[in-house]
């Protein structure tokens, strides 16, 4: 089952829809709410483009002006709310993302698919460096999760939990792969090493 093509595909647009599902807000309040709820950890949020995202949602009929606020001498603030079409789009889009696995193309996978171009010893050194960085990321992720857990229910932190588990899983895989290269138990590692030492492709590589 493939994902549906949508009028808007920017994940920030979905985050805005869900934020407005909570209550009507002006864009500055949307930005504050996204920060307070820790959504900037899981979604790439460019706050400068938030107004453009809201305008695009309005253009497609997913949000509408709920009211225009004026407090004292402050400039007017336009408060936006979800339309019925916006509620349907939010529920449908979110359901799609949860149910349908999408093929993503992490840059690390690309690097792994091409690592034979580097000598095994270089790859070991580089992956050891990556592993150190991942371990730091895991430690800081656990600290962030604990800190956020002091003020937010776990329901609103499941994406941070998932992110942390993915980093831990990657670290575990890198650790095991490194061990295979270093011990020489990785199938093809001798031919890989031989190629970089002599420039000759071993028979199993041809």
Query: Strand count, sense and closure of the main sheet?
Result: 2 strands, antiparallel
| Overall residue-averaged pLDDT value | 91
How would you spell out the order of helices and strands?
HHHEEHHHHH
Structural class: mainly alpha
Report what the structure shows.
With 206 residues, the chain is mainly alpha-helical. Strand 1 and strand 2 form a beta hairpin. Helices cover 59% and strands 6% of the residues. The protein has a two-stranded antiparallel ribbon with strand order 1-2. It is elongated and about 75 Å long. It has helices spanning 11-22, 27-36, 50-59, 84-99, 107-113, 120-149, 158-183, 189-198; strands at 63-69, 77-82. Helix 6 runs antiparallel to helix 7. The mean pLDDT is 91.
Task: Provide a quick synopsis of the model.
With 206 residues, the chain is mainly alpha-helical. Helices cover 59% and strands 6% of the residues. It has helices at 11-22, 27-36, 50-59, 84-99, 107-113, 120-149, 158-183, 189-198, and strands at residues 63-69, 77-82.
What is the element layout, followed by pairings?
Layout: H1 11-22, H2 27-36, H3 50-59, E1 63-69, E2 77-82, H4 84-99, H5 107-113, H6 120-149, H7 158-183, H8 189-198
Antiparallel strand pairs: 1-2
Helix pairs in contact: 1-3, 1-4, 6-7
InterPro entries: Metal_resp_DNA-bind_regulator, Tscrpt_reg_PadR_N, WH-like_DNA-bd_sf, WH_DNA-bd_sf
Protein name: PadR family transcriptional regulator
Organism: Streptomyces longisporus
């Amino acid at each position: 089952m493939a994902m549906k093509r949508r009028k808007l595909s920017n994940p920030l647009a979905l985050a805005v829809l869900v934020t407005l599902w909570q209550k009507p807000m002006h864009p500055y309040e949307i930005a504050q709410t996204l920060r307070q709820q820790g959504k900037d950890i899981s979604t790439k949020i460019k706050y400068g483009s938030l107004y453009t995202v809201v305008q695009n949602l309005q253009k497609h009929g997913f949000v509408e002006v709920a009211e225009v606020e004026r407090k004292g001498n402050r400039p007017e603030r336009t408060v936006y709310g979800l339309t019925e079409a916006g509620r349907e789009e939010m529920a449908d889009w979110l359901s799609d993302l949860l149910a349908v696995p999408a093929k993503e193309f992490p840059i690390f996978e690309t690097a792994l698919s091409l690592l034979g171009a580097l000598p095994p010893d270089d790859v070991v050194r580089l992956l050891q460096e990556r592993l150190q960085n991942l371990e730091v990321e895991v430690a800081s992720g656990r600290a962030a999760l604990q800190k956020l857990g002091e003020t937010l229910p776990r329901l609103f932190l499941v994406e941070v939990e998932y992110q942390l588990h993915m980093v831990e899983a990657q670290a575990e895989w890198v650790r095991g792969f490194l061990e295979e290269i270093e011990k020489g138990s990785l199938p093809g590692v001798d031919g890989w090493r031989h190629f970089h030492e002599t420039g000759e492709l071993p028979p199993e590589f041809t």
